[in-house]
Each structure stands twice: as structure tokens, then as C-alpha cells.
């Protein structure tokens, strides 16, 4: 029995998963998820993080495509970009389908073996 062609693979999800694997970056994304652009100073306010630490984390998020930056005078302002999250959802949906297929094949194999030995 042949398997249907797999869905096309999305872009490499590893950098997005890696960027999301840090609690500080998740907090920054949460603060940016309201759609407002914020400066590094605004993101560092009310936290124990320095502006340098915030900058380091924002660069990782930006490289993963999760935030975008734009200049406003002398400041860079950052905003959340949800597209990579949609890409992760597509990737996880694809993995889920593959596991569903593997489990169905295993179930069929076990049921066939069970009916043949009786």
C-alpha cells in the first residue's frame, strides 16, 4: 500500500522553536503581542533586564522572524510578527498527520497479527 505524498515541508522551524525556548524572549513577545511598537527602553522598563540584555534577545527574535524593527528618530521600535507562528502551526499539523498515519499503520499491523494467530 503506498502512502500519499507528504505535504510540502515548511521553512526550517528550528530557529523559531529555539527563539521561543527562552522565558525572557517569551515575555518580550508577550509584551509585543498587543500590536504596539515598543522601544528597547520601553521593553526594559519595569523589568530587571538591562537595555543590552533586551537588545540581545530582540536580535534573536528578529533573526527568527518573530519581531520586526523600524527606526523612529534615534530609537529602534520593535513589533511582533505572527507569520512564523503560523509556520510552526503548519509544521506541527504536518508532524501530527505523520504520527496519525504511523499509529494507524501500527494498529493495522497489530490487528492483522492478532487475527492471524487465532
UniProtKB/TrEMBL annotation:
It comes from the Bacteria. CDD domains: HTH_ARSR. GO terms for molecular function: DNA-binding transcription factor activity. SMART domains: HTH_ARSR (SM00418). Residues 7-100 form the HTH arsR-type domain. NCBIfam families: HTH_metalloreg. PANTHER family: TRANSCRIPTIONAL REGULATORY PROTEIN. This is ArsR family transcriptional regulator. It comes from Hoeflea marina.
Amino acid at each position: 500500500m503506498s502512502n500519499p505524498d507528504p505535504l510540502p515541508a515548511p521553512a526550517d522551524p528550528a530557529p523559531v522553536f529555539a527563539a521561543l525556548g527562552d522565558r525572557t524572549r517569551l515575555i518580550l513577545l508577550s509584551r509585543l503581542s498587543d500590536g504596539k511598537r515598543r522601544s528597547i527602553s520601553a521593553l526594559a522598563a519595569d523589568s530587571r533586564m538591562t537595555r543590552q540584555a533586551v537588545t540581545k534577545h530582540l536580535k534573536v527574535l528578529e533573526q527568527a522572524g518573530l519581531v520586526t524593527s523600524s527606526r523612529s528618530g534615534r530609537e529602534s521600535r520593535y513589533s511582533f510578527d505572527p507569520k512564523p507562528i503560523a509556520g510552526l502551526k503548519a509544521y506541527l499539523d504536518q508532524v501530527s498527520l505523520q504520527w496519525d498515519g504511523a499509529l494507524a499503520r501500527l494498529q493495522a499491523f497489530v490487528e492483522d497479527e492478532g487475527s492471524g494467530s487465532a
